[in-house]
Design brief:
The protein has 387 residues and is an alpha/beta fold. It has helices at residues 17-29, 43-48, 60-66, 83-95, 107-120, 147-167, 184-187, 212-225, 261-273, 295-313, 364-370, and strands at residues 3-9, 34-40, 52-54, 98-105, 126-131, 172-177, 202-204, 229-234, 250-252, 255-257, 277-280, 319-325, 333-339. It has two domains: 3-133 and 291-342, Rossmann fold (3-Layer(aba) Sandwich); 147-287 and 351-374, Phosphofructokinase domain (Rossmann fold, 3-Layer(aba) Sandwich), CATH 3.40.50.460. Helices cover 34% and strands 18% of the residues. A hairpin with a 2-residue loop joins strand 9 and strand 10 (255-257). It is elongated, with a radius of gyration of 22 Å.
Length: 387
């Protein structure tokens, strides 16, 4: 029995969320079980307001433009839904003859996906999650679409900062990375050494409790040895009791607006060690940068969108598409389906094997794991001062 399909975006945009949308539309166009493809303009809130756009017949130029457009072409949201909103969705699905519901997003969106599934499982409405998060903190999947591009941005941009600091070695620079409670994006800065002779000197992850005295000892040693350097720190750094090292500005649901961690750490260096330090905070610049988009990330995002349509049409429901890394020397992945209950609101953190013993850097195991995800090799930056 044919029906219509709707796709909704949730949470923070990425450099490849539109590639998943492209995959959804392309696969749906090829399926005789899908009549029309609707996009909710502005996520779940937009759907509840019946802000739908029929994207079935986009032109070739529009479709291909999705692959190189940052953020969400159909809008997204962080709506905090309650039981009445979920109940209101079901009659809307029926009104628009929607048989297939695809939720494209991270932890919060997959939680929403599971709750929609719970209300639709007795209906002939199939609900499938499409993974997306630059934080890379979704459970079950090996990695998440959106992360590879954010990791490429961090590696390439930090390499450029390291080049700058080596060129004028008069200070310590602290760079703050997004990633919330997981250090995957922060750690990706370690791949700066694939591009430049010098990489970040210290990396601090939220998987390890922050120790101010240990941090100052690390920086003192760096200053004594080099007189300059680059530090990368996660926005989610916290003390052993779980208190953030900088009080969050405010929190709405799962969305925490962290304080300025890089500025705090730079001020510590200046005040406690008496040495010049400055803070850099790429923030949103690194979340959805097309200039640093990873072609591997883009291809996997599209594949996840296509796999979600195939799963829904085949009768699957209450699942999320996930990526599995295939064994072998050549990097390759395949999609598989994970039960949505195993994904909902479960954060995937950096494992111990990826963090060095001192807690101020990463291991080669992490670098080998993440390197294929950033796509083509980073540009080589020259340093003629080195032999």
């Amino acid at each position: 029995m044919a029906g219509n399909l709707i796709v909704m975006h949730g949470g923070g945009p990425t450099a490849v969320i539109n590639a998943s949308l492209y995959g959804v539309i392309r696969e749906a166009q090829a399926s005789p079980e899908v009549e029309r493809v609707y996009a909710a303009i502005g996520g779940t809130g937009g759907f509840l307001k019946e802000q739908l756009r029929d994207v079935t017949d986009l032109t070739e130029q529009q479709l291909h433009g999705l692959l190189s457009s940052p953020a969400s072409a159909i809008g997204t949201s962080r709506d905090a839904l309650e039981a009445p909103e979920y109940e209101a969705m079901v009659p809307l699905f029926e009104k628009y003859n929607i048989r297939y519901v695809l939720m494209n997003g991270g932890n919060g969106t997959q939680d929403t996906c599971g709750k929609i599934y719970a209300r639709c499982k007795d209906k002939d409405i199939r609900v499938i999650g499409v993974p997306k998060t630059m934080d890379n903190d979704l459970a079950v999947t090996d990695h998440s679409p959106g992360f590879g591009s954010a990791a490429r941005y961090m590696a390439g941009s930090v390499a450029e900062v390291c080049c700058d600091v080596e060129g004028l070695p008069i200070h310590v620079v602290v760079i703050e990375a997004l990633g919330r409670n997981a250090g995957w994006v922060t750690a990706a800065a370690s791949l700066a050494t694939d591009s430049y002779a010098h990489g970040p000197d210290l990396i601090y992850l939220p998987e390890r409790a922050f120790d101010e005295e240990a941090f100052l000892r690390d920086v003192r040693r760096l200053i004594d040895q080099k007189g300059h350097g680059v530090i990368v720190a996660s926005e989610g750094l916290h003390y052993a009791d779980g208190t953030p090292i900088v009080e969050p500005i405010f929190t709405v649901g799962r969305a925490t607006y962290f304080g300025d961690v890089s500025a705090h750490l730079a001020n510590l260096i200046t005040k406690k060690l008496g040495y010049k330090a400055r803070a850099e905070k790429p923030g949103l610049l690194g979340r959805a940068s097309i200039a640093w988009q990873s072609e591997t990330d883009r291809a996997e995002a599209e594949a996840c969108g296509r796999a979600a349509v195939r799963a829904a049409v085949a009768g699957e429901c209450g699942k999320m598409v996930a990526l599995g890394r295939l064994p072998g020397e050549t990097f390759a992945t395949e999609t598989f389906l994970a039960d949505i209950q195993d994904v909902m609101m479960t954060e995937a953190k950096m494992p111990d094997a990826f963090i060095n013993a001192e807690g101020n850097g990463v291991t080669e195991a992490y670098k080998n794991w993440v390197r294929p995800l950033i796509g083509s090799p980073l540009p080589k930056l020259m340093d003629l001062r080195s032999e």
